[in-house]
From TrEMBL, chain B:
GO molecular function per UniProt: ATP binding
Keyword annotations from UniProtKB, A to Z: ATP-binding, Nucleotide-binding, Transport
Pfam families listed in its UniProt record: ABC_tran
Source organism phylogeny: Bacteria, Pseudomonadati, Bacteroidota, Flavobacteriia, Flavobacteriales
Native organism: Winogradskyella haliclonae
Full protein name: ABC transporter ATP-binding protein
SUPFAM superfamilies from the UniProt entry: P-loop containing nucleoside triphosphate hydrolases
All residue ranges annotated as the ABC transporter domain in the record: 5-229
Length: 275, 299
């Protein structure tokens, strides 16, 4: 396993484009997080301090940071897609197999790398959130700090799931640009499924339940948008704002199911293909 | 003799096209094998199958004694197919170290092998800056990293200039003289003739011949003759039971033998018959002529 990760890291790290993209995907969410946490003074007219909105309080901070940070996954998604695309266009996939790597090892080396980076991203975000939270939060009792730490798990599962989807598209289409375009197509297809389900069940709730099983939607649903929750904390008496934002085991299970399927299909595809 | 590769009834179909048909042969340790055949005869497909990149349709093959998986066996094999494939953004040394990691061997031989192919002074240049000849030499260095039991080369001189071709052939000869088993696929007959002891001839995916190069066809060679008394010579040859086919081109007469006969015996015979030869050469068919005969016979 270590050997497979080392292999892939060498391929990525010596490539300048992927090095920059990896750097961006780690540094950018960090910078945004730090910038948003400092007091910004607009030329003495007024000061903007997001911390005062209460968004840096435990436990809601776990929810907000993981939600926002997950948008930066697209940078690493480009890396994932191009690490497959490049292997095909340089024909190094063929050479790797001839040199004695098995097809299973090839897919596993990509998958382990995905898990490795997702884990690193999760740990970094976790650490940063913890520090900022400790600095700003009004409550610092351990029971409150670690109350919604499951958002970190959801974040990790979400990243692994999304990158596995990219890996599969990369294997399917062999070209990075096509694979990224396919992500967008899948997004549209999911809305078409929603529309189809709406026609059948004649109910938006039912249709959303169907859509929740689709890959992109299930990943999105892992961490619901936190803004409504922020508003909720400001106006606790408005009951119609209440919604279910917690991480459910079923949501995690669906995404893990998709992840397993994508990795398995990628392997099947490679096994059946003549290179 | 130790078997390195055994292929039994291998078949590969691409849709309706049969690229390899019921092919069987064995590669034994210590010999230099050539796979001969025109373009599209199934050479690369056969190599692709045994190298784990093309899926077979039928039949089977195994490496060594058949006790290890193909991908593990390939760690003891060195192979170059068609074009050299490396990561363009890595240097030669980095590329070779990656191959070492895949093959699970230590990286200490990287410099030694770069030296063998004469690329040591360019080891820190990126692969994309290399010329085709250098790329092909790097591919050979990469194939040698694990000191392989067998070296497989598919059209190694394709697209190279004469110097490049000469360099690659010299490297192959040096490796062969060290006792490494080599399997060389090519459509260039003189290339195979120069380095191979055994040959497998393919046409349209079917095996026409496999065995030693010099036993490829049953031939005792032929004489090339010139004389002043041309018509007399031809009538003597036609009456003689040792010759079955006689060709005349301008003043050059070619007589094919049905049984062995030395040039001096022939010269003596002619002298007794009162014919003085101005030109006498005994030759065997070149591989090219043998190959054409072999493929013609089956047409």
């Amino acid at each position: 396993m270590i050997r497979l990760i080392q292999l892939e890291l060498q391929k990525l790290w010596l490539n300048r484009t992927s090095k920059v993209l990896i750097f961006v995907s780690f540094i950018l969410p960090f910078t945004v997080l730090v910038l948003s946490s400092i007091k910004i003074n607009f030329f003495g007219f007024f000061t903007l301090e997001l911390g005062e909105l209460g968004i840096f309080n435990f436990p809601i901070i776990w929810h907000i940071t993981t939600f926002c940070a997950s948008y930066f996954k697209f940078f690493f998604a480009i890396v994932v897609v191009s690490m497959i695309g490049n292997e095909y266009s340089n024909k190094t996939l063929k050479q790797n197999l001839i040199d004695g790597l098995s097809k299973k090892e090839f897919i596993l080396s990509k998958f382990y790398t995905i898990v490795f980076f997702s884990l690193a991203a999760t740990l970094l975000i976790g650490l940063a959130t913890f520090c900022i939270g400790m600095y700003y939060s009004s409550y610092t009792e351990a029971s409150i700090i670690f109350r919604e730490v499951e958002f970190l798990l959801a974040y990790f599962v979400k990243l692994v799931g999304f990158f596995s989807l990219c890996l599969f598209f990369g294997m399917l289409l062999k070209r990075s640009a096509f694979a990224l375009a396919f992500l967008f197509i899948l997004y549209i297809v999911e809305w078409l499924v929603f529309w189809g389900a709406y026609e059948i069940f004649d109910s938006a709730d039912k249709a959303f339940q169907v859509k929740n099983f689709m890959p992109l939607e299930s990943m999105y649903k892992l961490i619901d948008q936190p803004f409504q929750r922020v508003v909720m904390t400001k106006f606790p008496d408005k009951m119609d704002l209440a919604y279910d934002y917690s991480v459910h085991f079923s949501e995690v299970a669906i995404v893990m199911g998709w992840t397993a399927l994508f990795i398995f299909l990628s392997y099947r595809l490679l096994k059946k293909r003549d290179l | 003799m130790e078997n390195i590769l055994t292929i039994n009834n291998l078949t590969k179909k691409f849709g309706y096209l049969t690229a390899v048909k019921d092919l069987s042969f064995t590669i034994q340790k210590g010999n230099v094998y050539g796979i001969l055949g025109p373009n599209g005869s199934g050479k690369s497909t056969t190599l692709g199958i045994v190298l784990n990149v093309v899926n077979k349709t039928n039949g089977d093959f195994h490496w060594f004694d058949g006790s290890v998986d193909t991908h593990d066996a390939l760690k003891k094999v060195g192979a170059i197919i068609e074009r050299p494939n490396f990561y363009p953004y890595m240097t030669a040394e980095q590329n070779l170290k990656l191959v070492c990691k895949i093959k699970g061997v230590s990286t200490e031989k990287v410099e030694e092998k770069l030296d063998v192919v004469g690329l040591l002074d360019r080891k820190d240049s990126k692969f994309k800056t290399y010329s085709l000849g250098m790329k092909q030499r790097l591919a050979i260095a990469s194939a040698l990293l694990n000191d392989p039991e067998i070296l497989i080369l598919d059209e190694p001189t394709n697209g190279l200039d004469p110097q490049g071709i000469h360099q690659i052939r010299q490297i192959i000869k040096d490796i062969a003289s060290d006792g490494t088993t080599i399997l060389l696929a090519s459509h260039l007959l003189d290339e195979v003739e120069k380095v191979c002891s055994h040959v497998v001839v393919l046409r349209k995916g079917e095996k026409l011949y496999s065995g030693r190069v010099d036993e490829m066809i049953n031939s005792h060679g032929f004489f090339e003759l010139k004389t002043e008394k041309q018509s007399e010579l031809i009538s003597i040859l036609e009456d003689h039971k040792l010759f079955d086919k006689i060709k005349t081109e301008d003043d050059l007469i070619t007589a094919f033998l049905t049984e062995p006969m030395s040039a001096s015996d022939f010269n003596k015979l002619m002298f007794e018959k009162g014919i003085v030869l101005s030109h006498l050469v005994k030759r065997k068919e070149s591989l090219e002529e043998q190959f054409l005969q072999l493929t013609d016979n089956l047409n």
